[in-house]
Amino acid sequence: MIELDNVTVRLGERTVLDGVDLTVRRGETMVILGASGSGKSTILRVIIGLVRPDAGRVLIDGEDVTGYTEKAWNEVRRRMGMVFQYSALFDSMTVGDNVAFGLRRRGLPEEQVRTEVAAALTRVGLDGWQAAMPANLSGGMKKRVSLARALATHPEIVLYDEPTAGLDPIRSATVDRLVMETQRTLQTTAVVVTHELVSARKIADRMAFLHEGRFLEIAPTERFLQSREPLVQQFLRGEETLAETRVTEDDRR
Ligand SMILES: Nc1ncnc2c1ncn2[C@@H]1O[C@H](COP(=O)(O)OP(=O)(O)O)[C@@H](O)[C@H]1O
Ligand SMILES: [Mg+2]
Fold this sequence. Notes:
9 helices, 40% helix, 25% strand, Rossmann fold, globular, alpha/beta, binds magnesium ion, binds adenosine-5'-diphosphate, disordered C terminus, 2 domains
């Protein structure tokens, strides 16, 4: 469904992705792990066409989209939804208008927009919140609105950039459950970027570990957790220690 073939991305002086190969199969949930600055967000931005590779190819559903114009990319993007880090809601719009955004851009009649918005908000447990403003929501609720916005257009591919970042364990578990339910009921193909192993273990079919713009390991979850790659082992040990000592923080900001 998604294929990155030897993708290299340079930003400024830096080689951010250094010959990345990645295949994500239809219906699969691929989790990308790695330290901050390893290039995880850049991979998502390549998949959704916001960053163009300097070398290599991007294939979506077997179609080589590498050389596509912005107009052609817009068509490809219609099949995708993205949940950005920090929710990235439009602060001046109501919750309902945020979720309706992609639907209106597709020119759906207003009555149908309302129905789809209600359905998307119901899926994340927030129907009835259409008139609320994002500023009055907790961090966990903003994440759920962001998820509703990404799913409202029924995308085949959903990209999640650290969907549980900044949330306490209980709210994280709620978002994880929504991601899992989405995968099960809508059978989307998903790429989830996270550095939280607890979430990753619950939602992943396969896991990939990125280090300085290269994948050191890509494997089904159980096999990944047994990886002999020293840096992967170090990451897994570090995350376990973190999970034990993690302080519960309020997610409101
Ligand atoms: N627009 C940019 N210009 C220059 N460097 C960038 C740009 N965007 C990201 N980078 C660098 O690329 C590296 C990878 O970034 P990113 O993909 O955001 O990593 P991650 O999501 O894993 O934290 C980082 O070192 C970051 O500083
Ligand atoms: Mg990032």
